[in-house]
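Deliverable D4.2, example record:
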Amino acid sequence: MYKALLFDFDGTLADTYDVCVQSFYRFLLEYTGRKYTREEIIALFGYNECGVIAQFIGLEQARSNFGRFTEIYQEEMHAVGNHPFDGIPELLSEAKSLGYRLACSTGKCLETAKLSLEYFGIASYFEAVSCGFEDVQAKTRTMSNSLVQLGLQASECLYVGDAPTDVTSAHPIGLAIAGVAWAPTTNPVELQSAQPDHFFLTTADFAAFLRENAYE
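Output generated by the structure prediction step:
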């Protein structure tokens, strides 16, 4: 049925939400001397990390100092000690064994996406990583880039995400989506109301679906 699975990261594979917020807080305090609030930072999510920082200090300075941000991000990852959601490594392994091609399609920047995938020990499952942008909040464009990287049509792929905005980003380009609500931060009612093509509460349920619908 589907040749490839395009996975969102935060809320789908794992949760680095708090790591991101704390990393922005530390970086901006170090760089500007100002304590920005959680709300001020979260309001800019949708840009990649460099793009978020650029809203505070300008794009040129964000780019030139981004190495320091990734250092802080790594420190916060290790301090928090996050893990992939229960069942994710097994799900990815089984999907690969069933012949699905896997890509990560996330709003993160490439540096933090790769750091996160490697930290969680799941980087080897993904043949492509498509990321967000500095200058625009455009998840649909990120998804389209994943299709180009894989050399597949939207009809051949299934996006896997936890947010209503994943649904509204996937459908305009003809990309089916599995709404997944196994993260404690996901609101299943809101996700279902966005009308994903498929809906799953557990990784086990999604794995069963993949076994039943493996491409032949």
